[in-house]
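Table S2 (text version). Query chain:
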Amino acid sequence: MDRESLKLDLKRLIVGELDLRDRTEADIDDHKPLFGDGLGLDSLDALQLAVAVEERFSVTIPEDDRAKAIFASVSALADHILAHTK
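Corresponding structure-token output:
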């Protein structure tokens, strides 16, 4: 899977899994933060998203401080997935 397709898949996963009815994939910037002032996700969203990403892409999201960097943006999440899949 190429990086651009992966980012689009991630955006679809975020919108669908987190039931962001007021958002579309096009509303999610590749480089803006997913949490806080960016997309506005919270810690419960992080847990739900981590489980969905692990199931969909067969990668592990660490349950420590590394997760913050992985979930920094769609681009960072895509980089993690690409680095940990074959």
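Notes on Table S2: Helices lie at 3-17, 43-57, 66-70, 74-83. The chain has one domain: 3-83.
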